[in-house]
């Protein structure tokens, strides 16, 4: 039986717009509408893990309205079971501005995915999963209390590993929520900016060691074109990435996280999982709007073993 994976996250609508640069206050600039797609960190991670033929459940609320309808249609097409329905409000959406260099900036209008309630967890027994992904987007405000309380019910932490991606809104996470989460010893997977936000330092080495002191387990930090580094208490290990021409960075971090989780589920070591994640992320940023369906999973796994 394959190890089971649970993704706790959201699906939202991404409207992708290319701009030469971001506008200044009061300015009017032209942009190019690239696409409108289903996105969200949880959804992106689920899509990446699914490419590796792993058994994965997606705990994702779907509301009611025009955006929820688009998401339901996408789930049906991708054969993703809609496991949680909440008909109070619609799902959220965002505008993703992609600058000439490929960097992206988001303007988000949240929906049902920021109103978590304990009832959504009733159909899930968290101890049945070997790996559980949690996104920082879902831990803001009262939702953080709900989700962390559910995670604290896990009976055997040695058999159920949490992977936490703080996301770009790490600064908005409540310190008490973070302290309770870190006490559960999650693997933290973040980029440099998120690492610095969580630790109040501006050095990668200081940041990963400070975070390890709180979680007592592996910390992974992505380094853009330089790949990633991880720290498990002994020394920092740098894992380089292949050089590619960046089209845009939408889904770069999510694809790295998803591939790392897939690698762990497949029994790869931390080093092998990080190398796999680098390869997947490099392939994703070389395509437009985070194309996860073209990941050559078997080929990439064979390359890192």
UniProtKB/TrEMBL annotation:
Carbohydrate kinase PfkB domain ranges (all copies): 4-287
Keywords: Kinase, Transferase
InterPro entries: Carboh/pur_kinase_PfkB_CS, PfkB_dom, Ribo/fructo_kinase, Ribokinase-like
One of the protein's GO biological processes: phosphate-containing compound metabolic process
Listed GO CC annotations: cytosol
Highest taxon of source: Bacteria
Pfam families on file: PfkB
GO molecular function: kinase activity
Keyword Transferase: yes
PANTHER family: RIBOKINASE, SUGAR KINASE
Family classification: Belongs to the carbohydrate kinase PfkB family.
Protein name as annotated: Carbohydrate kinase PfkB domain-containing protein
């Amino acid at each position: 039986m394959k190890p089971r994976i649970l993704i706790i996250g959201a699906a939202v609508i991404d409207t992708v717009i290319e701009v030469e640069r971001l506008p200044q206050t009061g300015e009017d600039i032209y942009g190019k509408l690239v696409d409108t797609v289903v996105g969200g960190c949880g959804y992106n991670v689920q899509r990446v893990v699914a490419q590796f033929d792993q058994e994965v459940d997606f705990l994702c609320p779907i509301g009611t309205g025009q955006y929820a309808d688009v998401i339901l249609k996408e789930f049906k097409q991708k054969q993703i079971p809609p496991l949680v329905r909440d008909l109070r409000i619609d799902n959220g959406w965002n505008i993703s501005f992609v600058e000439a260099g490929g960097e992206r900036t988001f303007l988000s209008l949240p929906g049902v995915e920021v109103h978590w309630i304990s009832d959504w967890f009733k159909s899930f027994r968290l101890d049945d999963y070997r790996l559980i992904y949690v996104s920082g987007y879902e831990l803001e405000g009262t939702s953080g209390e709900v989700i962390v309380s559910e995670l604290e019910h896990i009976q055997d932490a040695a058999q159920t590993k949490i992977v936490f991606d703080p996301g770009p809104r790490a600064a908005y996470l409540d310190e008490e929520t973070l302290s309770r989460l870190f006490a559960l010893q999650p693997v933290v997977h973040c980029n440099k900016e998120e690492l610095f936000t969580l630790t109040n330092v501006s050095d990668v080495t200081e940041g990963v060691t400070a975070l390890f002191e709180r979680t007592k387990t592996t910390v992974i930090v992505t380094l853009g074109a330089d790949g990633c580094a991880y720290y498990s208490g002994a020394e920092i290990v740098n894992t380089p990435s292949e050089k590619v021409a960046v089209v845009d960075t939408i889904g770069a971090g999510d694809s790295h996280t998803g591939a790392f989780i897939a690698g762990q589920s497949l029994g790869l070591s931390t080093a092998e999982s990080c190398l796999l994640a680098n390869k997947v992320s490099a392939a994703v940023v070389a395509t437009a709007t985070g194309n996860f369906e073209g990941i050559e999973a078997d080929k990439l796994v064979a390359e890192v073993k």
